[in-house]
Amino acid sequence: MSVNATVTVEVGLGDRAYDILIGSGLLLRAGTEISRRLPGTRAAVVTDDNVAAAHLETLKAGLEKGGIQPAVITLPAGEKTKSFAHLEEVVDGVLAARLERGDVVIALGGGVIGDLAGFAAGIVRRGMNFVQIPTSLLAQVDSSVGGKTGINSARGKNLVGVFHQPKLVLADTEVLDTLPIREFRAGYAELAKYGLIDRPGFFAWLEENWGKVFAGGPERAEAIAEACRAKADVVARDEFETGDRALLNLGHTFGHALEAATRYDSARLVHGEGVAIGMALACRFSSRLNLASPDDAARVETHLRAVGLPWRMADIPGELPDAEALLAFITQDKKVSRGALTFILTRGIGQAFIARDVPASEVLSFLRENHPGRQSRPGPQKSSPGQQKSRPG
Amino acid sequence: MSVNATVTVEVGLGDRAYDILIGSGLLLRAGTEISRRLPGTRAAVVTDDNVAAAHLETLKAGLEKGGIQPAVITLPAGEKTKSFAHLEEVVDGVLAARLERGDVVIALGGGVIGDLAGFAAGIVRRGMNFVQIPTSLLAQVDSSVGGKTGINSARGKNLVGVFHQPKLVLADTEVLDTLPIREFRAGYAELAKYGLIDRPGFFAWLEENWGKVFAGGPERAEAIAEACRAKADVVARDEFETGDRALLNLGHTFGHALEAATRYDSARLVHGEGVAIGMALACRFSSRLNLASPDDAARVETHLRAVGLPWRMADIPGELPDAEALLAFITQDKKVSRGALTFILTRGIGQAFIARDVPASEVLSFLRENHPGRQSRPGPQKSSPGQQKSRPG
Ligand SMILES: NC(=O)c1ccc[n+]([C@@H]2O[C@H](COP(=O)([O-])OP(=O)(O)OC[C@H]3O[C@@H](n4cnc5c(N)ncnc54)[C@H](O)[C@@H]3O)[C@@H](O)[C@H]2O)c1
Ligand SMILES: NC(=O)c1ccc[n+]([C@@H]2O[C@H](COP(=O)([O-])OP(=O)(O)OC[C@H]3O[C@@H](n4cnc5c(N)ncnc54)[C@H](O)[C@@H]3O)[C@@H](O)[C@H]2O)c1
Ligand SMILES: [Zn+2]
Ligand SMILES: [Zn+2]
């Protein structure tokens, strides 16, 4: 495969099917690819400050080649932008550009911009065309694929949104070169996740080739394409998340609790880092429940550490709430029926499954055992004396 | 048919199919009907001040019978409530009640509450269950059926929303007795619309029986049921409004322009009144274009006048902008390609069709001819001297 080859992954969703194109130089082909699929379309580009500075001019040049002169809506970068206020701003901007249902909203940015712009596209005139141009690794391998869009609420993250599939995804692997390395790593956690869910061969390939993925060779496009295939498979089986799609939450139950516990302070923890720690914990927890071998958990931890990702709670700078408080963050957003929780657990690398009956008490003891002990509520611990015993690392 | 019989109309939308129950005393049966379809569900009721004062206690008693104790979210009455700010308020209230995707949002109110609560139900957790309990005649025959939800934007009405079908519609014909007569009449305009679109027999039946529909006999439920059948038919053919469903906009192009021209001041014109005048104008315009007989236009005008509805622009209190300005309101929200507009026109009562090539110039002369002449921009008229000639009435 040459560096410039474009890989196409098809997301098979019947009359909502669409292509993901993966390769370098795609921003410059955007106009051609979009107008081929949506002839005569008009467009609004939604982006953030960082991405606009690095890539907006290139995209505009690319759109121009397809005869598209877009309206541009630029928002502040960061998770806080996924709010009702900014949703209203995007909706208003799209309407101000007098776009119709058949015109297109283009998201140029990471998952924040993709989720927000996709939601706006899903509700303006009850649904407009939408194209994703993901610019972060996380967005290329995860958020841009599958049609989940949304914003955050004071009551929790991603609680408000719609399913709205794009007409096309353009994952330009070159734009990732301007991504801060910490963000690249965070996206890599989600990439590795697909190996852990059901692609053990992919995980082994990543153990071998991750350096080339970071460096930007053809392996980068290949890894992204494999991740998109993995996600597209799950989405095609369960578009509206009534079953299997929950597997994609591997690492996310612990991860979300840690994000909440650090008050979504990205200086301490970004989402993908939370997922990295969460995946390591989910594997370790599975081994503690005698579902998986401790060797598999160790292999996961070793790989995350190798690429520079945090993999245990102790890697989070600053104090963490105690185990009880972490459990409360976990149960907050979940139905707890008769003391049991739903979790994504695993029988080994590439063998994740949905466990619907995990006792909250087991989670609590596990959290105690793995807690780094630097707690934000100092004073005598209510937890068992063995608490620090099996703390890894 | 006895007064208490319940009529069921099924909306045939495959796996999104649902029942509309029409009859008296349905508020008291709400708990039974909802928990039969959604066993074990929890609920939030969204309503407005007026409706809460008249009917909330009855509904709560009815829900109690099905073991449902709802959270209640009460909003100010009126079109202004269909805003981003109130959408956020409803979303937050539903989340505060810790409802899950399988729980239900219940709209108790007119079209404003139905549109807003349905939109909230469509986006909280990317789609929750939704039940409509329409309390205005307009909501019972129109807005509660078909799954269109939404809010207004500074750029125009109903420009933001989703398609989100309810699981059940309960149209309690008794609650209409507290509805102000002017609102009842406004809803009646939408009811008569179905006769004009494609049910000439229904229109003739209404000419005969409208008094009993207003009075509240079994004819009321029968008329509502027929309207729901008519709308359900159109919706089943074209759920996402890509074709035929546009027929439901009969009277709405002129009507919306008049609403905009009176700045949505409900003291001057409510939506159904705008539709009444709009339908009369659409028929008159069709006859002027030699598509329909002037007798049919006269018959429509006579019936609207008989029930006490406005039927011509002169019936709107206060000054109206001139014909050019009205045309600008019409073209504002529509694609005008090469000077031609899409309009719902008719070949006679019950024979409406979508006309895609109506010259804007024809619309303008028609508006001039039918303009009452009390214009908000006084001064010499640019329009033809024949302007007032064929002004009806
Ligand atoms: N919809 C889904 O299915 C789904 C799945 C996973 C995550 N998400 C959401 O995605 C979001 C996280 O996505 P993210 O990590 O991309 O966050 P992000 O969009 O905030 O991007 C991270 C940072 O990188 C910057 N950036 C992005 N691309 C860049 C580039 N090419 N060059 C320089 N800077 C660049 C951004 O400005 C931002 O500061 C979260 O809100 C999460 O909830 C959604
Ligand atoms: N979704 C759709 O397909 C669709 C179709 C048509 C209209 N609509 C929307 O519906 C709205 C108009 O609906 P509406 O006319 O019902 O307006 P509305 O909801 O404002 O109700 C009209 C008035 O009647 C009051 N009211 C309602 N029921 C009552 C009762 N039983 N007793 C006493 N007072 C009562 C309300 O408080 C309000 O003051 C508009 O926003 C329009 O855009 C939507
Ligand atoms: Zn994630
Ligand atoms: Zn209407």
**What's the end-to-end separation of chain A, in Å?**
40 Å
Largest interface: A-B, 29 and 29 residues
Basic shape of chain A: globular
Q: What's the pLDDT, averaged over the residues of chain A?
A: 92
Runs of chain A with pLDDT <50, length 5+? 378-393
- The count of β-strands of chain A is 11
CATH topology of the largest domain in chain A: Dehydroquinate synthase-like, alpha domain
Domain 3-dehydroquinate synthase C-terminal (chains A, B): 187-336
GO molecular function (chains A, B): 3-dehydroquinate synthase activity; metal ion binding; nucleotide binding
Pathway (chains A, B): Metabolic intermediate biosynthesis; chorismate biosynthesis; chorismate from D-erythrose 4-phosphate and phosphoenolpyruvate: step 2/7
Protein name (chains A, B): 3-dehydroquinate synthase
